[in-house]
Specification:
Helix content is about 70%, strand content about 5%. It is built from 32 helices and 14 strands. Strands 2-1-4-5-6-7 form a 6-stranded antiparallel beta sheet, with helices on one face. A 5-stranded parallel beta sheet has the order 8-12-13-3-14, with helices on both faces. Helix 5 packs across helix 6 and helix 10 crosses helix 25. The longest helix has about 70 residues. It starts with a strand and ends in an 8-residue tail after the last strand. About 5% of the residues have low confidence.
Length: about 1100
């Protein structure tokens, strides 16, 4: 089984991240996740566990990597099993709802939905989540747990690893033993069972002491019996007295009510018995009908008055039909008044616009020239003007640019020439001052030839001294002339008798001296000092090699003298060369040494060379100053030449500008344009022509608009005049008719009618043709609206009059129906008049009221009970009056007070005796002690049961471990020893677990056994990993589950780290190993041991959950 790919939809800091872990056709191998802290490596290991066994619940102890932004929590994982089937596990959670999908695609392509139990059985070999984490999910935290254990517990922890446990089994056994010790120990005191037994002993002692008070208890029982008998008699007497008192009090309270009851009952018996039960109802109907009849008659009278008033208001309200027919035309013209006003304003604006356009045309033409007219401006041929102006403007810009560039270049060249001349003068003065001062201010200023001779002589002397230093055996490397002369003289005296012994050495050093002299001559004559130096160095190297070979060859005793002679002869040649070069250099430096007051013969080689170097440095600085003077002089010549060229260019540019102006003025004359116009002015003239064209078009449009508006205004005035004349004629005619009607009706209709027609006549006198036309139009509209209001009022009066007639008729019919109903009521009641009906109804109601009072008094007297129960009170009411009943109540109350005092006294004595009896009874019987003893016995049973369960669990755990030790531990230990030997480079060869002991040991190659409490941290972790790997191999037949290792190699040294990596590579043949690390050296080591490792580099997440 290997994991192909994981898709983290939302898990920790990952959002929609897809990470391919292996390829489908590859072997198991190792997948390495490498990245810094907070890159999400451990998060991926937890994600794989959650995909296999489900997302943790909200209340689970496991960490939930829920994203903080509210995204989907979960993801998808693809796994390939041994048979080639691909499993897709998808688990995600959103808004509290959990989605789980497990699908299996077989090698033949068959898709099957699988449950979680089938996943664990088929793919994971029956491993549950806990077993997977303890065997195949190894983390750094788990390894660090080894350091929290004591030395004697490390062995037990490693031992329990072989039982698929780890620290869990060790802690379980420890917890079982601690729980058993907390419950019971044979001689303990603080254990729960021991404390319970001690409490039960104390309770039994207290119970035995309580049985001594049994005699006193019987005496108290007899006293209580006598008191209870007397108390019962008093209570019975009090009950009887209370009943008597109740009867007397009730009789006293109802005495007045009893008297009213007797009187009311006698009056009820005197009432007539022939009254009908329907009389009140008939009387009520009679009153209602009488009231309705009166209301109906009043309504009829009111309606008659309204009919007369409406008829009076309708007289003289006839509408003016001829004038109302003019309403539509009048309203149409009135609605056009705003439009007509707008037309007038628009006509005025059009006229103003025409005047403004004409003024704008004159303004545009006068901008070209004061003598131009709009006709001249509009007649201009601007189609060719614009192109000609653009060409002229380009020529003018080019000329101005050339002149500006020439003037700027001229200014710049003049400034450069002045600056170069100034710098040249400064450099020339500096050279003169430098040559006048000489070397180091001595006044000695050699020319170039003398300076070159001094430099060559110094170089020759330096070469000769270097050769002499290489051949001399003395400690003083730089010789003086006197020392060279003395040593040469002494060697000549020593070697004079035996010159034949140094022939070979003389030849070698003579060869070297000849090469040096040849190089010096080449440098002196050809001035090739670099080549001369190379030749000298090659010659000296060859001389040194030959001298070394000659010195290494074993000379005969007879040749030793010859060797010494040759060596001294070569040194004589070198000393002579040094003297020659030193003398030559001294001659060249004689003027400088004389100027500095130094002794010429006493000057040594070092001082001569130092003086020559000072002269060389001075000469190089002078050459630098001379070179700067030459450079500045050339710059002055160049800038002067450039000034002359720029002056010529400026003159040519001015001539070209004059020619351009002549051509422009000639074109203006040809086109009859003002001479003052520039190319920009011509372009402005073209723009003004375009503006004039637009203004001309605006002027034409404004004139057309003005004419159209004037025509519309004239047509409106004609319609208004016609309408007003017609309306005025109709109003005048109607006014005359109204005047005639008023004259005729003044004698017939009365004052009111005459007044109405007088108002109408005043309204008809309105003059429509006086004033403005629109004013007359609106006066006509107002008159039409008044006539419409009169017409509307007339129609409403007609409708109102009709409705009043209908309602008056209905009221008369309703009054007739009411009268018939009232006659029927009198007939049914058997009376002749309504007054007689109402009197009999009142008599019936009074009888009913008496019956009601009798019932209420009986209810007060009997209180809802039977009449027989009231007989004792009736006897009291008949026997005693009210004052006697009150005295009887007082007497009975005093007797009851005496009984109550005696009862309270007896109850107090009884209570005290009962308390004493209960105390003695508790001491004798010990009920509370029995209950406490029973409670302690129940607690003891529960504790003993728990102790038995813990002991049984410990026994079962020990039997399970013993069975595992006997059956499966040997094979696991053998594979663990193999891995331990591999990871320790053969230091440990066996893993030992003594039978029946919870400890582990390692055997070395020399047979020495190392117990677990002597393990180092790294060794303990290696043993832990070896046992885990061995257990995983033992389960390979059930399932090849991937290993998920979270940074477990951090505590290994370099050697054992490499061996552990090799062990993991061997394990990856049968298991897919997925590791995480943040250490680059671990990555480099794994890549070196397994080049085909799949490396996934991760970056630090922007969001860390």
């Amino acid at each position: 089984m290997k994991i192909l790919q994981i898709h983290l939809m939302g898990y920790g800091g990952f959002r929609d991240a897809v990470i391919p872990l292996t390829e489908r056709g590859s072997n198991m191998g190792i997948t390495l996740l490498y990245g810094p802290n907070e890159a999400g490596k451990s998060t991926i290991t937890y994600f794989i566990r959650d995909m296999m066994y489900g997302l943790p619940k909200r209340r689970s102890s496991h960490t939930r990597y829920v994203p903080s932004e509210g995204a989907v929590y979960g993801g998808r994982m693809s796994v390939l099993d041994r048979g080639g089937a691909e499993w897709t596990i998808e688990r995600w959670e959103r808004d509290g709802s959990l989605h789980t999908s497990i699908r299996k695609v077989s090698a033949t392509g068959v898709l099957t939905d699988v449950s979680q139990s089938q996943l664990e059985d088929e793919l994971l070999g029956g491993l549950n989540a806990g077993l997977f984490c303890r065997l195949f999910g190894i983390t750094l935290d788990e390894l660090q747990e080894l350091q929290t254990l004591h030395d004697d517990e490390v062995g037990a922890y490693l031992y329990d690893t072989g039982l698929y446990g780890g620290r869990g089994i060790t802690e379980a056994e420890r917890w079982l033993q601690q729980s058993m010790d907390g419950l019971f120990r044979p001689r303990g005191r603080n254990q729960l069972i021991n404390q319970t037994l001690h409490t039960m002993d104390k309770l039994e002692r207290v119970q035995r002491e309580a049985h001594r008070h049994a005699g006193k208890l019987s005496e108290l029982e007899e006293q209580l019996t006598l008191i209870e008998l007397e108390l019962n008699e008093c209570v019975e007497q009090r009950v009887v007295q209370r009943e008597e008192l109740a009867k007397a009090e009730r009789a006293s309270g109802v005495a007045d009510t009893w008297i009213r009851y007797i009187a009311t009952k006698q009056e009820l018996d005197e009432q007539p018995t022939d009254l009908s039960i329907r009389l009140p109802e008939l009387a009520a109907q009679w009153r209602e009908l009488d009231r309705n009849l009166a209301d109906t008659e009043a309504a009829c009278r009111g309606m008659e008055e309204k009919r007369q008033a409406v008829a009076a208001r309708m007289k003289g309200k006839e509408p003016f039909k001829q004038l109302l027919d003019l309403e539509s035309e009048t309203r149409r013209l009135a609605q056009l008044t705003d439009t007509v006003q707008h037309w007038r304003e628009a006509a005025g604006e059009a006229e103003v616009e025409c005047n403004a356009a004409e003024a704008e045309l004159w303004r545009l033409s006068r901008q070209t020239d004061s003598s131009w007219t709009p006709e001249m401006l509009l007649a201009s041929k601007t189609s060719s003007y614009l192109e000609q102006a653009q060409l002229a403007e380009k020529r003018a810009d080019a000329c101005r640019l050339a002149i500006a560039q020439s003037e700027a270049g001229m200014e710049h060249a003049v400034r450069e020439a002045e600056l170069a001349a100034k710098e040249y003068d400064d450099a020339k003065m500096q050279l003169e001052r430098y040559e006048a001062a000489g070397v180091n201010g001595s006044g000695f200023a050699p020319n170039e030839g003398s300076a070159a001779d001094i430099a060559r002589a110094d170089q020759s002397l330096a070469d000769a001294v270097r050769v002499w230093d290489a051949s001399s055996d003395s400690k003083e490397r730089v010789p003086t002339p006197e020392r060279v002369h003395n040593e040469s003289y002494s060697r000549r005296n020593r070697n004079a008798p035996r010159p034949q012994k140094f022939t070979h050495s003389r030849i070698i050093y003579g060869f070297g001296l000849g090469v040096v002299l040849l190089a010096a001559a080449l440098g002196w004559i050809a001035q090739q000092w670099l080549m001369a130096l190379v030749i000298a160095l090659v010659g000296l190297a060859a001389t040194a090699v030959m001298a070394y070979v000659s010195s290494q060859s074993p000379p005969h005793s007879s040749d030793k003298a010859d060797v010494m002679a040759r060596s001294e002869s070569a040194q004589d040649g070198l000393e002579h060369a040094i003297r020659v070069h030193a003398e030559a250099l001294r001659q060249l430096l004689q003027p400088y040494l004389s100027s500095t007051a130094r002794s010429i013969p006493d000057a040594g080689i070092d001082e001569l060379r130092r003086t020559a170097q000072e002269v060389g440095a001075w000469h190089r600085e002078r050459l630098h100053v001379q070179e700067r003077c030459r450079s500045l002089y050339e710059t002055v010549i160049v800038t002067e030449r450039r000034c002359r060229l720029l002056t010529a260019e400026l003159d040519a540019a001015h001539k070209k500008e004059e020619g351009r102006l002549r051509d422009w003025h000639a074109w203006l004359d040809q086109e009859n344009l003002p001479e003052r116009l520039t190319p920009v002015g011509v372009k402005e003239h073209c723009r003004r022509w375009e503006q004039a064209e637009e203004v001309e078009q605006q002027l034409h449009r404004a004139a057309v608009k003005h004419a159209r508006l004037l025509g519309q205004l004239e047509l409106f005035e004609q319609d208004c005049n016609s309408l007003l004349h017609t309306a005025q004629h109709l109003i005048t005619t109607r006014s005359q008719q109204v005047m005639k009607a008023n004259d005729i009706g003044s004698g017939e209709e009365g004052t009111e009618t005459v007044f109405h027609y007088g108002v109408a006549a005043a309204d008809d006198g309105v003059e429509l043709l006086s004033g403005s036309m629109i004013g007359g139009l609106f006066r006509l509209l107002e008159r039409i609206e008044r006539e419409q209001a009169i017409e509307q009022e007339y129609q409403q009066l007609l409708l109102h009059s009709s409705s009043l007639d209908d309602e008056w008729k209905e009221k008369h019919i309703h009054a007739s129906q009411i009268q018939e109903t009232m006659n029927k009521l009198l007939l049914e009641a058997g009376v002749n008049t309504g007054f007689e009906l109402l009197h009999r109804a009142d008599a019936y109601n009074y009888k009913l009221e008496l019956e009601r009072q009798v019932r209420e008094l009986e209810a007060v007297l009997y209180r809802g009970g039977e009449r027989t129960a009231f007989r004792p009170m009736e006897e009291l009411l008949i026997q005693y009056d009210g004052r006697e009943l009150e005295q009887r109540c007082i007497s009975i109350a005093r007797q009851m007070e005496q009984l109550d005092a005696r009862i309270r006294e007896l109850e107090g004595r009884k209570g005290r005796l009962e308390q004493e009896r209960e105390r003695l009874k508790q001491e004798v019987e010990g009920a509370s002690h029995h209950q406490e003893i029973a409670l302690q016995e129940s607690k003891l049973d529960e504790q003993a049961s728990r102790y038995a369960v813990l002991a049984l669990a410990k026994t079962l755990m020990q039997r399970t471990r013993r069975l595992y030790e006997e059956e499966k531990q040997p094979a696991v230990l053998k594979r663990a020893a193999h891995y331990m030997e591999q990871m320790s480079a053969g230091r440990y060869t066996r893993v030992l677990i003594p039978f029946g002991e919870k400890t582990i040991a390692l055997a070395r190659q020399d047979g020495q056994v190392v117990w677990s409490h002597h393990f180092s941290r790294g060794t303990a972790e290696q043993v832990y990993l070896a046992i885990r790997f061995a257990l995983a191999e033992a389960l390979t037949n059930r399932a090849s589950v991937p290993f998920v290792l979270d940074d477990i190699l951090v505590n290994f040294d370099q050697e054992r780290l490499g061996l552990a990596v090799k062990a993991l590579i061997a394990l990856s043949d049968s298991h897919h190993v997925m590791m995480t690390t943040c250490h680059p050296h671990v990555v480099d080591l794994i890549k070196r041991e397994l080049p085909e490792v799949r490396l996934i580099e991760m970056q630090r997440l922007a969001y860390s959950s």
